[in-house]
Amino acid sequence: FIFLYFPETHGITFRIQVNVKEWLDTDILLKLLFHLPVNYPSTLPDISVNSDQLTRAQCTDVKDKLLEQAKKHLSEPMVHDLILWIQQHLKHVIKQSAGVCNEKPALSKGASTEDGIWMLLLHLDHMRAKAKYVKTVEKWASDLRLTGRLMFMGKIILILLQGDRSNIKEYLILQKTSKVDVDSSGKKCRERMISVLCETKVQAQHKRFQMFEVKEYSTLDELQKEFEAAGLTTLFSEFVPPLLK
C-alpha cells in the first residue's frame, strides 16, 4: 500500500508497506517511509523503517543498507529500485544482524537502552475536527510505538511524545504532511499552525510514560502537576506559561 503526501515546500513523502514472504516461513511486513526533499534525486531521501516482526536493531540495519544502496543511485530516481532491492535482500540483511538480535534484549536497566529514547513537545493552535484529529494522533502514536500525552487545557493543546528518535521524526513528518484537520470551510487540510517547543533526549530524572493517553485539564495547576509527576517541571516552566500570554 502506498500513501502519498504532497507538502507545498518540503518535497514528497511516501509511506509504503512491503510484505516480504518465505523468510523462515514467516511473512515480514516492512513499513517504509521515504521523504524526498525538493531537490531529490540530487539529494538522498530520508528513510525510516519499522516492522512488528523485526527488532529495533534489525530495522536500523535495514535502513542503513537502504541508504547505502541509495548512494549508488544518486541523481536518478531510486525509490522503486530500493523497494525491489530490499525485497530480494532482506534475508541476507537480517542474517548479517543476527549477532545483534541474538543478544539479550536490553529492555530493563541498561543505560544503552535509553540511547535512542527522545522526547518531543508540540503545541497546536486549534483542532476544528477534534474527534477525527484525536483518533489520528492516537493511531500514529500506536503505530510508531510512542507514549505520552495529548493534553487539552482551555485553548492550549499540547502533544508530549516519548520514544525512539527515528519514530519521533517519522511522527513529525506525518503531522506536518497529512490532512489531519479541516479549514474554516470544512475542507480537509494539513496542520499549518504547529510549533515544536522542545525536542530532547530523555534524561534519568524524567519519568517514562507507559502508554499514550488523551487528557483534559480544567486548570493550569492540574496541567502543571502532570508535568511535575513526569519530572518535567523545567520543561513546563519554560514553554507552557508563555502560551497563555
TrEMBL record:
Keywords: Cytoplasm, Nucleus. PROSITE patterns: RWD. The keyword Nucleotide-binding does not apply. CDD domains: RWD_RWDD3 (cd23819), RWDD3_C (cd24164). InterPro entries: RWD_dom, RWDD3, UBQ-conjugating_enzyme/RWD. GO terms for cellular component: cytoplasm; nucleus. SUPFAM superfamilies: UBC-like. The keyword Cytoplasm applies. Its main location: cytoplasm. Pfam families: RWD (PF05773). It is found in: Cytoplasm; Nucleus. It comes from the Eukaryota. GO terms for biological process: positive regulation of hypoxia-inducible factor-1alpha signaling pathway; positive regulation of protein sumoylation. Residues 1-93 form the RWD domain. This is RWD domain-containing protein 3.
